[in-house]
Every structure is written in structure tokens, then in C-alpha cells.
Amino acid sequence: MMRKFYSFILISLVSASLLAEDFTNPTARVKDSVEKVISILKDGTLERELRWKSIGNVINQSFDFRSMSQSILATNWRTATPAEREKFVEFFSQYLEETYRTKIEAYTNQKVEYISETINGKRAVVETLIITDNTEIPVNYKLKNNDGIWFAYDVVIEGISLVSNYRSTFAAIVKNEGMDGLLDDIQLRIDKYKSSNEPTSYSESTEDS
Prior knowledge:
- By secondary structure, the protein is α+β, with helices and mostly antiparallel strands.
- It has one domain: Roll (Nuclear Transport Factor 2, Chain: A).
- The chain has nine helices and five strands; from the N terminus they run αααααααβββββαα.
- A five-stranded antiparallel sheet has the order 1-2-3-4-5.
- α4 packs across α6, α4 packs across α8 and α6 crosses α8.
């Protein structure tokens, strides 16, 4: 269930800087993100690669990947070298983008309702429901205020945190193979997704997702 709806997670988290919107409000930030990315997805004049580049740029502008990476690595962040930290942030942002590429493109007009927001200093949680034809999925977006602008750093779907999910997976790799092993593992994952998302193998990658 969790992986099935990651397509809409990224849609709901991202935000383009195409217009000078007010991103000082966390709910407005999330809502604006939904509308802009869905607009890109629905634009039939865009070729597949151009559509994805547009969405990819939006993702990169909207996530606080450093905070997310720090939370995912937890104690391993403190013991990693500065070079390892920077490489992990770079690789993880690429990995997240590639992982959900096909899933984002599989968007099929799900609707989102904005339930509430809770602000606690520089942190906020925006509660929403993703509504499909036969179910409602609770999704909470965790955001962080960086210099007056809200950025996403975690998503909780039906009580399951994206950050916590990756933390347990990556911690096991670091324990067995060290940071070098983790970085190599993520690089292999990135290469795999890039290969599977080549236009010639699109139908095959969709079946494997």
C-alpha cells in the first residue's frame, strides 16, 4: 500500500518557483505544489523527457534533502566524514527522484483534501487525505522552515514514515558494509532506475514497479 501511493507523495511535496507564491504558510506550500505538478502532468504538449525534467527540477527545489539525509542516517551522519555526507545528500536526492519517476507519471486523477496544519516553531505538519475511487489514504507532510520558506523533509503515509523506512534499510547496509558500501549501493540503485526508465523499456519498467 505504501509504495503504491508514493507517486502522489512526491506530487504533493514538490513546488515550482515559476510564480512568486507565498510559501510562508505550510498548507499553501503543499497545495501550490499539488496544483503546479499536476498541471505539468496534464500538459499533453510536453514530451515525456521534458515533462520529467520539469517535475525533477521542482522536486530538487522543494525538498530539504540535507535535513532528510541527516535524519535518515541518524548516528551514522555524525560519524560520516564531510565528503561522505555531501555525497550521500547528492546520491539520495538522485535516488529519490529516480525511484518515483514512473510512479509520478502513473498519476490518474487522485484527489487530495487538506485537513489541518500544526505549526510548532520552525516545524509543521500538514494533514491530508488522498482520495481514490475506492479508498482514502491519510498522508501527513512534515515541513521545515528555512529562512521563511517551508521545505518538505518527511512524509508519513498511514502512520509509516518515509524517513524511518529508509533509516532502517540504510542502517543495515552501513553496519555491514560501511558508508562506502552504502554509497555504492545507492549508486547501483540509481543506475538501475535510470536504465529501467529509458523510453524503449517504459512498458517493462511499469510492470516491474
